[in-house]
Amino acid sequence: MKKMILTTASILAMAGAAFAAEVEGVVSSYDPATKMIMLESGETFIVADGVEVGALQPGGKVSITHDDGTMNATAVDTVE
Fold first, then answer.
1. CA 69 – CA 71 distance, rounded (Å)
2. Strand (E) or helix (H) holding 5
3. Which domains does the chain have, with CATH numbers?
4. Helix (H) or strand (E) holding 76
5. Taking 50 as the threshold, does the pLDDT of residue 61 lie above it?
């Protein structure tokens, strides 16, 4: 029984990870009104409600975790 519970928990953990992706890049622009971040690569992300972005500045490096396929940013961290 314990093996089955651990196996089920492992499968669920892997399934959750399959729906998220992470991108690093340089901020081209950030519009707080629309919550849109554009990277120099041309990728755009919409920051989800409740996600803190800090003071994003053009030229700053960021790491963005987003929902795979939707480009909704679920976490935004600055990279030193």
1. 6
2. helix 2-18
3. 20-78 (2.40.50.320)
4. strand 72-78
5. yes
Q: 9-38, pLDDT tens digit by residue? A: 445 455 544 478 999 999 999 999 999 999
Please indicate, yes or no, whether the overall pTM of this predicted structure exceeds 0.70. Answer: yes
For residue 75, the cross-strand partners are 65
- Total residues found in the chain within this entry: 80
Strands 20-31 and 44-47: unpaired
Q: Compute the distance between CA of residue 23 and CA of residue 29 in angstroms, rounded to an integer.
A: 16
Name the token pair of 80: 């030193």
CB 43 within 8 A of CB 72: no
Residue 63: what are its φ and ψ, rounded to 5°? -120, 125
